[in-house]
Amino acid sequence: MQLNRAQTVLRSRNPWEAMDLGIVLARRHAGLLMATWAVITVPLFLILTLIFWQYPSVAVLIIWWLKPAFERLPLYILSNALFDNTPSFKQSLKAWPALLKPQLLASLTWRRLSMTRSFDLPVQQLEGIGGAERQQRLVTLGRQYTRAPTWLTIIGLHIEMALWLGLIALLYLLIPAQLQTDWSWAKLLEITQHQWLWAEHLSNFLYVLVLIVWQPIYVACGFTLYLNRRTELEAWDIELVFRALAQRLKNSAALVVILVLCALPYSQPAFAEVQQATSNHYDELGVTEPRLLKQMLSSEQAQQSITNLLDQPPFQNYKTVTNWRFGDVNQTQRTPSAFSTPAWLDGLLTQLSFGLQALLWAVVLLLSAVIVWRYRQWLKTFGQQLLPRKKHQHAAPTTLLGLEISAASLPDDVVVTAQALWTRDPRAALSLLYRGLLHHLVEVQALPLTAAHTEGDVVALTQTSPEALQRYTQQLTLHWQNLAWGQRLLPHSEFANLCAQWQQLQQQERTV
CA–CA distance from 121 to each of 11, 143, 510 (Å)? Predict the structure, then answer.
């Protein structure tokens, strides 16, 4: 790997900054990345759509499941482009079949749902390792670093859904206003499954378009996270600095040699003086004496200076932490004492201590039980006050609008009795039908009717009831108001129609 040819600055970054670098890298090669992705995925999607025309979800599910296979091509392009070797469109497509061979089955089965897929792919594809070696490599790279790739996958999933729904909303906004005049959700639900197929295939195609834009960015972010982690562990930035320094020294080596030669003395007395000084130096430093004795610090003083330096910040930061904890006899350090007790006495004292603790706990539990039993009535009363009070259920009214509606005041067959009363007392007959309706609304439909409600309130409260019951309530209430307040008697045919409708309602409820 030729690090000096990298097209970006290799330095240690935080994970989010590394993902920003991935976005920049993907944007720089966006045309090649999106074109190669589209050439591979769009024809495959069209073929799957024709095969599974009656099952649109199967086609888009296959495309989604094969994403790990498609992601290998963007990684190949980015890894070469990073080191100034960007492949062409034709070269990229030729290289893709060979990229699919290593560990494809594993990528599409037990590794398919991995949350760190974008971070793990470079280890498999670029380093070319597998099995236990790959697992150990991932453990080394992912130590305290898997949080960022996981969040990249989660955020990427939400970005995919947001872009997909945005395209669907944009498509809806592009529908001409003339086609939306008769648009309604009720009619939309009445469309058959056959008519829905084109819409599902169109929405699936929009999802494939979203993958063309987003998936190369996802791969690029995972790749730059991988590069950033290796930069941290292998110190690529420091290596590049040393290489630059070595290159500079290599270029100026001849000049350094000339300067050194010019600075060396060439006279014989000078060499003799240096040799004499060296001999005297070796005479002064014996083999049994401490080294560095003629320097500013001896070895002992240097060691003491180093120890004092390491005991100071930032190497050592002492702080006192005070907290409570239970005592442990085994771990408590006892201070040495001149008097030591025998082992049998220590065991006896330990047993006595345990027995005393058990006795004290037994006393506490016994006193608690006595107190609870002594004040059980008070606790019962106090506990009932703390419990939530149950809502008082009001009894069903027996009189509404000045009419008796209780079951005892009504005959067993309201319709037959009303028909018998019609010939001699039409008002009583219609009143009986209306009373039976009010009784039905209160007892069966459980409407919250009270004595304060009017006929109009009764009709309004039946808006949540079945449609047939609503129509019957409106008709009977209207005829009752005309007779009770306007003294207008309804025709016999209308009365017979009301009786027939009431019988039909009763039969329908029995069937249900």
Answer: 21, 16, 66
122: nearest Cα among 41, 219, 10: 219
Retrieve residue 117's tokens. Answer: 């897929």
Amino acid identity of residue 114, one-letter, is S
Burial 90-125 (b: 16+ CB within 10 A, else e): eebeeebeebeeebeeebeeebeebebbbbbbbbbb
Conformational region of residue 322, where left means phi above 0, alpha means psi within -120 to 50, and beta covers everything else: beta
Question: What CA–CA distance (Å, rounded) separates 272 from 280?
Answer: 12
Instruction: Output the CA–CA distances (angstroms, integers) from residue 309 to 291, 306, 320, in the order listed.
Output: 22, 5, 21
**3 state DSSP class of 442:** helix
Q: Convert 247-259 to b/e letters by CB count within 10 Å (16 or more is b).
A: eeeeeeeeeeeee
- Segment 456-472 mean pLDDT: 80
| C-alpha–C-alpha distance, residues 250 and 247, integer Å | 5
Least confident span in 19-23, 86-90, 352-356, 413-417: 413-417
Task: Report the phi/psi class of residue 387: left, alpha or beta, with left for phi > 0 and alpha for psi in -120 to 50.
Answer: beta
CA distance 131 to 138: 11
**Cα–Cα distance for residue pair 385/387, rounded to 1 Å:** 6
Residue 67: CB atoms within 10 Å: 17
Q: Which residue type occupies 228? A: N
Mean pLDDT for 124-146 is 85
Q: pLDDT (tens digit, 9 = 90+) per residue, 188-205?
A: 555 545 556 888 888 899
d(CA 435, CA 427) in angstroms, rounded, equals 12
Rounded mean pLDDT, 440-451: 78
Nearest to 406 by CA among 448, 377, 434, 436: 436
A 10 A CB-CB count for 436 gives 21
Mean pLDDT of 158-174: 89
Residue 30 confidence class, pLDDT cut points 50, 70, 90? very high
Residue 301: count other Cβ atoms within 10 Å of its Cβ.
13
pLDDT of residue 279: 47
- Residue spans of the domains in the chain: they are 3-176+183-241, 400-511
The single residue listed with the structure tokens 């006896």 is 348
CA dihedral 115, 119, 120, 126 (to 10 degrees): 160
In degrees to the nearest 10, what's the CA dihedral of 351, 357, 363, 364? Answer: -160
The region, left, alpha or beta by phi > 0 then psi within -120 to 50, assigned to residue 292 is left
Dihedrals phi, psi of 290, to nearest 5 degrees: -60, 145
At residue 452, the pLDDT reads: 76
